[in-house]
Amino acid sequence: MMHPPSETLLAHASGHLDRALRVVLEAHLDHCAACRAEVAAVSAPGGWALGALPRLPAPDALWTKLAARLDSAPAADPIPASVPLPLAARRELVPGGRVRWWRPLLRGARLAVLDRDDERGVALAVAHMPGGRVFPRHRHLGFEHAVVLAGGYEDERGAFVAGDFAIYEPGSEHGPHTLDGDDCWILFRLEGRVRFRGWRGALQRLIA
Ligand SMILES: [Zn+2]
User: Is residue 77 domain-resident?
Assistant: First the structure.
């Protein structure tokens, strides 16, 4: 299995990842006992340190806020159950409206943005594609962090199947195709834009 780097696991344990990356990482952790153990190991010293702190009464405002949250009706999970997104990853998402699927000019493919941070230019999205299909070749202008939720795909770096964590650096380019057989589901966090090659690139420039 392809794992996230240790520094990403440490940043997760210490609460330093943005929401999109937390969701992607939780999706990997659901598949990977080794990384779950590593997160638990790096979290333990922080827990002991917190436990050793002198106990202070919680501010009144905290109880008011908690009570308000408990009073409000629980928001419905906006992501359909048919999306193979693990529960821990769903929990990280802010409940929003209905998921809107966008169908690019590809047979049977669909994409939905689950979370967006316009200030930082970060988007979290899920893609669904039948097996044995080619995704257009493209170049990443920023980082992409991705986890395969189901099925798999292959590109110049090899084959990625359920649970695999992939990082594409800014400037990297690839032409993935989904593996034959099961439908492929990918959860990914994008920083910045993606440039398509070929006629789709020309179309993108025309629209932009
Ligand atoms: Zn792992």
Answer: no
Helix axes 19-31, 33-52, angle to 10 degrees: 120
Cα–ligand 1 centroid distance for 202 (angstroms): 38
Both 105 and 200 in one domain: the answer is: yes
> How far is the centre of ligand 1, averaged over its atoms, from the C-alpha of 10 (Å)?
13
Q: How far away, in angstroms, is 207 Cα from ligand 1 center?
A: 39
The predicted-structure confidence for 141-181, as pLDDT tens digits, reads as follows: 999 999 999 999 999 999 999 999 999 999 999 999 999 99
User: Could you tell me if 140 and 171 are in contact, meaning their C-beta atoms sit under 8 angstroms apart?
Assistant: yes
Domain count, the chain: 2
The residue range of the domain holding 17 is 6-71
Helix (H, G, I), strand (E, B) or coil at 121: coil
What is the model's pTM?
0.82
User: Which CATH number belongs to the domain containing residue 142 in this structure?
Assistant: 2.60.120.10
* pLDDT tens digits, one per residue of 104-138: 767 788 999 999 898 989 999 999 999 999 888 89
